[in-house]
Amino acid sequence: MLRCSSRLLSPSLRRSNHTMIPLTPDSLNPAILKVEYAVRGELAIKSEEYRDQLKAGKSLPFKKVISSNIGNPQQKGLDQPPITFTRQVAALMEWPELATLAPDAFPKDVIARAKELRDEIGSIGAYSHSQGVPFIRKNVAKFIEGESNTLLAATAGSLSAARDGHPADPNHVFLTGGASAGVSLLISMLITPPTSGILIPIPQYPLYTATLAQYKGVPLPYNLDESDGWATSIESIEAAIAKSRKDGITPKALVIINPGNPTGALLDEPQLNSPIPLVSFHSISKGVSGECGRRGGYFELTNFSPEVIALIYKMVSIGLCPSVSGQIGVDSMVRPPQPNDESYPLWKKETDTIHAALAQRTTLMAERLNKLPGVSCVDSPGALYLYPQIHLPAQAMDAAKQAGKEPDAFYALALLDETGICVVPGSGFGQEEGTYHYRLTCLCPGVEEYVGALETFHLGFVKKYGGL
């Protein structure tokens, strides 16, 4: 319940003896009742219950819960180490006196970076510019343009390299609390209910359908081509546009996710010059950075009029400013140490190690899953996820129906109950009728044991329900 001072209430209301009407779901905004978010849905809730039971000493068929349902690299159990440079800069921004109290603990370039940021920002406990610290927005623009030296593209990998080699205006960059905040803002501004919608790829990250439900927009699905490595199909997009117009829905935007989520696919189309307004989102949450809880991100506007940009600025101003800690994380991502810096050797070692680990885990998992009967999995060379398709025995399909579950949700619940591995069923992302999938992350250490548990479960499940 919202709290307020009694001084704001009228005397008659304060003295009223009338019975208060209870707050019920029916008394809330009806749009929120339609919001669904499978990534943190039934399976995630049940996995947390299992985790609590294990802590309490209860005996279960597994010794730990593996949260493979969400791309959260630094969560307990996955334990991807943070980049030291990022954390050292953050530490000095939180407590500048550390540089004096422990001068030998920080490389010179970290101390210089923190001082430079403090000179621009001041205390991180103060509000920043609503659009984000101007100095950091300039650094993001340089990152997009590729002004930082070209070595980054070869050494840091696609998730932290200089980006597009295309002009970027700092005034068209908005820093955000993770990419999701920017996505939600733009959707809220585009939708005019009930006759506007947004084209979303299927399978899709449920942020889009959840946010569309919140703002009474219409999801306009277009199918990715699984037979072609989950490629984006122009024909499917055109068909979706035609159908939406036939149904009286105006398509307002097209969502393209790269690398794909949940599919892990990479787009291979060359960049095109276009007059169409484009919003590009990025964050520090995934990949090598893995700083999900820091909530840092940005979006860049291209081909937007000054009038629309002014309206977007007005809307972000309502939230005062994005997290300053997150903004500092963005700065560290777009301005990593350079070869002559004292921090560079460690930064290079850490990022190379994470890249190699993710690549090795993804490749191994895809190979092993593809060898299982009734499983096919597109390899994911540049993302955190795999999205295997599963073919289930007829008896399993019948059992799922009797349990009132989608077949892939039935499979995923059985996987969790037996192994402690939490995944997200494909029915939570959308999928072509008659196909079933699940999404899992490739972040788990001890990948041999992890994949071995998936293999043992799948073979047992297929045998239990009569084989394929």
TrEMBL record:
Xref: InterPro entries: ALAT1/2-like, Aminotransferase_I/II_large, PyrdxlP-dep_Trfase, PyrdxlP-dep_Trfase_major, PyrdxlP-dep_Trfase_small
Gene3D superfamilies, per database record: Aspartate Aminotransferase, domain 1, Type I PLP-dependent aspartate aminotransferase-like (Major domain)
A single GO molecular function term of this UniProt record: transaminase activity
Keywords, ordered alphabetically: Aminotransferase, Pyridoxal phosphate, Transferase
Aminotransferase class I/classII large domain residues: 107-273, 278-442
Domain of life: Eukaryota
One of the protein's GO biological processes: L-alanine catabolic process
SUPFAM superfamilies: PLP-dependent transferases (SSF53383)
Known cofactor(s): pyridoxal 5'-phosphate
Family membership: Belongs to the class-I pyridoxal-phosphate-dependent aminotransferase family. Alanine aminotransferase subfamily.
Binding partners and assembly: Homodimer.
Protein name: Transaminase
Protein species of origin: Athelia psychrophila
